[in-house]
Queue: 2 jobs
Job 1
Amino acid sequence: MSSVLFDVAGPRARARQRVGTVVGTVLVLGLLGWVLWILWQKEQITPDKWEAFTEPQILEGLAEGLLDTLKAAAVAIALAVAFGLVFASGRLSDHAVLRWPSVLVVEFFRAVPLLLLILFIFFGLGSTLGTFWSLVLGLTLYNGSVLAEIFRAGILSVPRGQSEAAYSVGMRKSQVMRMVLMPQAVRAMLPAIISQCVVALKDTALGFVIGAAGIVDEAARIYISPLYRNPLAVGLVLSAVFIVINYALSRLAQYLESRMRREGRQVVGEEASAAATG
Amino acid sequence: MYFSELVSRLADGFLITVQLLGWSGLFAALIGTVLAGMRVSPITPFRAVGTVYVNTFRNTPLVVLFLIAVVGLPALGILQDSFFWRAVIALSTYTAAFVCECLRSGINTVQPGQAEAARSVGMTFGQTLAIVVLPQAFRAVIPPLASVFIALTKNTSVAAAFGITEATYQLSNLIRDFPGSLVTNFIGISIGYILIVAVISGTASLLERRVAVAR
């Protein structure tokens, strides 16, 4: 296949690429072997570092932790969508009284580190809210602000003729928004919203810092216990769990996005969400 | 009394934040560029490594990476006596995945016709890359790259949870000595982060205007 960098390879280039493939494979396998060798030498691939993950009790605890994590992420996303809708319509409002506070709120929560926000909420309101709601409130404010920007972009991505046509048949602004722009915008925004779910799920792990129940908190108990002392193994298992879930979600977003593009629709891509930037 | 203490501790904190940001940004840019090169290379194993790296690090929560780097790495005898550099490892390996994707999509925004035209007038691969493709890709890459470094700025705060006394750490540190100062601490620290973010996005838009070309 021809790309911007390379033409379709001829016989000589193909021969060179075959050599490159062999050398590359050897290099990659060598690197992998080297890492495994270090892990082996430092006694990280021994039964006592990994047997924690065969204990039914511990596995049950991890599963419960994962459920708590997913619950916090789901609640936060649901609330963030509501928050985003309110502030996106505020930002698109014709009244400066509504517009400016919305701009200020959205920009502030997008600029402040999420962990700082969560810690602030926890220290300030933690005694009444508890860890779960402190975490969810922090996630909601941050993801809601990002979603507000995505919603705004989605509504602005609907071709102008649509709202002009709606106004010309006599609809009011709220009707145009509700009946014409929103239904089309939501479809365009779906991939970006799912990508934002990945971000929210990853950020739920920050709950660990304030001691909220979750899979990271649960897993940390394993390596702290003098029985195991295996932070590396625990970290690798944790990242594997998150990778499986997040990879599946990102593929779903990619699939929806490519299907919509094929149908020639407007799409608010992944770039709009925080998924593209971390 | 409180105010001068606030200013001096925020100055200390943000000095470390900026150091974290600078070193992680540098390493992330280097690793990310190498990865992007691998992801667009015609050699399959390199492409595979690039893809696996990006999917691994982009989908792992930063807290888990910190856990592996800061708590786990000493078991391997790596950087045993420096919290700071282990935090830099976590931040830069995480951010490198995003830098890589940014550069790759930048290269993909250049239309194949551009390179084909360059080849048809007899330019070599190196010339095509240096004179035609990369300058155009660079332009497309500035705004998303700025967003990546802004995200990195905010992500340095996670280091606070792992015993590094950067800006976010000062929130709890100051409450200990000045109970009731929570809100002012929060506002002060927020302003610091917003200033750093403003500097990055300001630099980016300056650069963007410098290299902008009507197409």
Job 2
Amino acid sequence: MELFRIDDRLIHGQVVVGWGQPLDIGFIVLVDDTVAASDWEQELYRMGVPPEMDVYFHSASDAIDAMPKYVADPRRGILLTGDIATMQRLVDGGVVNNVNVGGIHSKPGRVQRLRYVFLSPDEESQLRALAAHGVKVSAQDVPGARSVGLSDLLNGSEL
Amino acid sequence: MSSETTATPPANSAPRAIVAGHGEFAAGLVSAVQQITGRGGQLIPIAVHQLSVEDIEDLLRRRMIEHGVRVIFTDLQAGSCTMASRRILRGMDDAVLVAGANLPTLLDFVFSESRPAPEAARHAAERGRAAIAVHVAAALGDEGR
């Protein structure tokens, strides 16, 4: 797996094209309880990727059990969650040690920390908890952008 | 001197479609349509910087209702605007989403005022697809220049 990414837009242009093409991504694992329970949502996201790229859908609990299969896959893959809490569950399950914050957008109660990252106090605590768990946390929307470490992300110095 | 003048049909400037996409894609294309045809008023450009998926969907839905339009043009099949539009158009049988729109697509659309907007959008999509061409210098007789 090349990338474990938190992105509230899930599959979109930055993921499929921005990361997908330069990394030669062969598959995406989308971990989201709502999407995993909806055939219509799955079809929506499946239509957004080129035919040579596979998409697999899992709930957070299912994803932990399925991870060995994806780690053993010779193709390069991206795992996506739409929020920090879901990624936290995967970290707790022992399957993630490096997290990319790729896009968490504006909502009431959130403060802007980067051009593409807005965080509530609870979400900041969640990211700190990931780091305390030994996970390397950084923010980077596209491969050509600078990777921003957690401390710089949280103090907003890169904004 | 003749008093006759060439009659030019008045351009319809009432909004008939939304254009949405990454960065300044929408504003740029609508600006180009306006510059070429003077009919950019038929298109509502929407940028979605820093918006969540839910907010993109809400913004597009509000603009559709506000202007009574049933056509959305977006830039990329995998884009957030396309995803949001597909959610909005679910169950709207008279609406059309064109993903992967380009300038020829929009030019054809704004000149298809006699057609209902959804029908004009389908026609424009075909024209936009056909308008992509690859020109090779050797084939044009430019080799060696």
